[in-house]
Structure to design on (410 residues):
């Protein structure tokens, strides 16, 4: 079977990070520089630094918001629209700050622009594709050890809340966000009723900021042969290039992936990651990316990946399990598997008409966030199950001020 590697021009089908050789895992980070492209990332030096814990003062109700727009670019829009965008992010910051106890400020880089000019491919509606309305992601991820001794990638915005005496060096920006100015947005500051095709920007911004703060998976279709039907779902391979060779450092999970279970038997998806990592030891060298793919296609682990393809495209097969009394079914009904949608949202059929509608895949048009909350009998935008998930990732709340958290290497 012939193989290749995938890129935007369809010649590369291997979504991997290609970088220089880096220091040990607890002294490097991943930086993202495009909110809409998960391949636009690089590995950077990220040494451990000491922190002054005295700056984490006890928060009271009068404290300033802990989420701030530090950089804001607004193009192809009126001055009034740009002001409304800023106000919407401030309102989202208020909602999140009232729900979670944030000890350290989360800095946002927000870009509001016409995607049809900056990214024409995102406005191509041929073949039933939807115009992309926007997105957000963590600007920097870093590896930390969970209580099962598995190193997983945590978003910087979350790590900043852990109050480590020493931590990987922080970037100046925590979350990057881009939103399409050609979308017919409804802003909370508007006094007129929402129109049928408008989308409430506060709804979408809150949804995307939850992704940026940790609600994301690293399961995806990273390894692919030239056979489009042979889709392989794995956690993300950690790859570096050294002396014209490909060095494989294992399949990596995100913090969110620690919470995932199969509904059929309640076993953790981490067990599958462990099976995948039997493919090769960390540090194994291959002649090239293509050579690595060929070796994987010839391995026993390829069948594990093929099984995951079936599971992740079958409805209601995977859930998060943030607490003994909580189980949240994830979106696995999309065919084929769609990175950024599959497993990274809650099941739409189960939760759209409940207080946990916020993290369903497609935002509801023609209704304000306030109207949706009233319809489902919710108490606010962040439903109880979403709150429980974020607590399990390490965010503190008034109800759970001391959540379980990861650690650095001892």
């Amino acid at each position: 079977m012939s193989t290749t590697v995938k890129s935007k021009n369809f010649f590369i089908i291997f979504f991997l990070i290609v970088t220089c050789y880096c220091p040990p895992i607890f002294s490097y980070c991943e930086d993202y520089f495009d909110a809409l492209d998960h391949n636009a990332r690089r590995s950077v030096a990220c040494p451990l630094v000491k922190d002054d814990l005295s700056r984490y003062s006890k928060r009271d109700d009068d404290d300033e918001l802990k989420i701030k727009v530090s950089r804001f670019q607004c193009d192809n829009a009126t001055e009034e629209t740009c002001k409304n965008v800023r106000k919407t992010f401030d309102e989202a910051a208020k909602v999140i700050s009232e729900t979670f106890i944030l000890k350290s400020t989360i800095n946002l880089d927000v870009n509001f622009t016409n995607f049809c000019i900056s990214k024409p491919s995102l406005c191509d509606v041929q073949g039933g594709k939807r115009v992309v309305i926007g997105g957000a992601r963590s600007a920097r991820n870093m590896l930390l050890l969970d209580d099962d001794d598995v190193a997983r990638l945590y978003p910087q915005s979350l790590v900043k809340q852990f109050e480590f005496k020493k931590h990987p060096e922080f970037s100046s920006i925590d979350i990057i966000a881009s939103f399409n100015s050609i979308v017919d947005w409804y802003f909370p500051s508007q006094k007129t009723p929402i129109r049928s095709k408008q989308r409430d920007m506060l709804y979408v911004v809150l949804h995307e900021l939850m992704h940026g703060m940790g609600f994301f998976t690293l399961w995806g279709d990273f390894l692919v042969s030239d056979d489009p039907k042979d889709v392989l779902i794995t956690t993300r391979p950690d790859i570096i290039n050294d002396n014209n060779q490909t060095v494989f450092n294992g399949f990596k999970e995100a913090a969110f992936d620690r919470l995932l279970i199969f509904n059929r038997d309640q076993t953790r998806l981490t067990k599958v990651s462990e099976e995948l990592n039997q493919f090769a030891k960390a540090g194994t060298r291959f002649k090239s990316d293509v050579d690595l793919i060929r070796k994987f296609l010839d391995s026993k682990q390829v069948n594990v990946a093929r099984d995951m393809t079936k599971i992740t495209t079958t409805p209601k097969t995977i859930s998060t399990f943030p607490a003994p009394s909580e189980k949240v079914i994830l979106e696995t009904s999309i065919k084929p598997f769609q990175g950024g949608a599959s497993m990274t949202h809650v099941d739409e059929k189960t939760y759209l008409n409940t207080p946990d509608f916020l993290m369903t895949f497609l935002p509801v048009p023609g209704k304000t966030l306030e109207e949706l909350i009233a319809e489902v009998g919710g108490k606010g935008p962040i439903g109880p199950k979403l709150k429980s998930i974020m607590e399990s990732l390490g965010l503190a709340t008034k109800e759970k001020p001391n959540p379980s958290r990861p650690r650095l290497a001892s």
About this structure: The radius of gyration is 21 Å. Residues 1-26 have pLDDT under 50 and may be disordered.
